Amino acid sequence: MLCGPFMIRRLWWGLVLVAATIQLDVVGGEVRPKVHIFATGGTISGAAPERIMLSGYKSGSFTIDEMLAKVPEIHDVADLTWEQVTNVGSGNIGTEILLQLASKINTLYAERPDVDGVVITHGTSTLEETAYFLNLTVISDKPVVCVGAMRPMSAVSGDGPLNLYNAVRVAGATESRGKGAVIVLNDEISAAREGTKTDTYRVDTFNGKEFGFLGYADPDKVVYYRKPVKRHTYGSEFIVKDFTDLPKVDIVYGGYQDAGPGAVMGLIEAGVDGIILASGSRGFTEAIKLAREKGIAIVYSDRKGQGRVLESPTRLAEGFITADNLRPQKARILLQLALTKTKDPEQIQRIFNDY
Ligand code: ASP
């Protein structure tokens, strides 16, 4: 066997190269997970002229490159790749971006088996809707982590950098597999189905109401105490890859005194496919019946923010669906997806019971 000084030198440089490559993925003797970030905007990317300005900032000011530059330590916990999907407040996120995100994540997971998890940066106002949509349309057991912030990136003591850092840790944690999409803010991990924004301003705004958190992103480790039992992600029947749009569903706020039929009549006129009632009202009972006659799907949810709307055989016999404990904004997402499969109220009720 040839083993002159030239050969030894080649072997040596070969080893150096291999070691350098391994160094890219290994920290402290551990393999770093691979995490991809999809950035969409929100307060987490917001900027104000002064560090002390905690309101009046502009969402979607910092790009994901600039955000990552503010948390250089993030590269110690994962091997990161990233892309800017859009850079807007979450009031501007809708069906088009949701379908794009689902398609990008499904494609990434199908084509890059080496990727361990994804993070979606997002405005908090509609973050729970995006999280629930991805919970129903990403067909994989790999983590899908939605993150936002309550203070702009430019703020003194902003929560964005740590939330982003923690979201990447959660996405890279093997413990996050099979938990469906989750929401990470304020070190707390909420399930996409129940996690909801409960405060207009405080940093501890997200929680799962009566169901609490799934776990925490603590400094020592990412820790879970329970997992969702309703169907989600890898157990979902909703394949949206060929969709360019979704059925139109709106929400009518009811249950208040003197509620009239105007909003429901307006939606009938507008030609919606479904209506979610954030509580029903005597004042629009007749209008709802008319909507049913026109084939519009009607789902009873509730405005209280907690608790179930009980299933009612009489209501179902009349063609009305009940949302169980899904909040109206999430019932809307589920009804949109359900209507891509069926218009039969019994089938839609089955879907509401399953998810
Ligand atoms: N307006 C912001 C948004 O939803 C609020 C936030 O991000 O917290 O984009």
Salient structural properties:
single chain, about 350 residues, alpha/beta, Rossmann fold, 2 domains, eight-stranded mixed beta sheet, four-stranded parallel beta sheet, 11 helices, 16 strands, about 35% helix, about 20% strand, globular, binds aspartic acid
Give the mean pLDDT.
Answer: 93
Number of helices: 11
Top-tier CATH class of the largest domain: Alpha Beta
Shape: globular
Q: Which molecules are bound in this entry?
A: aspartic acid
End-to-end distance, in Å?
Answer: 65 Å
Which value, in Å, is the CA radius of gyration?
23 Å
- Give helix % range: 25-40%
Number of domains: 2
Sketch the topology as an H/E string, one letter per element: HEEEHHEHEHEHEEEEEEEHEHEHEHH
Poorly predicted ranges: 11-24
Instruction: Tell me the fraction of residues in β-strands, as a range.
Output: 15-25%
CATH superfamily of the largest domain: L-asparaginase, N-terminal domain
CATH topology of the largest domain: Rossmann fold
Structural class: alpha/beta
Largest sheet, described in full? 8 strands, mixed
Order of strands, widest sheet: 4-3-5-6-7-8-11-12
**Reported CATH architecture of the largest domain:** 3-Layer(aba) Sandwich
Number of β-strand runs: 16
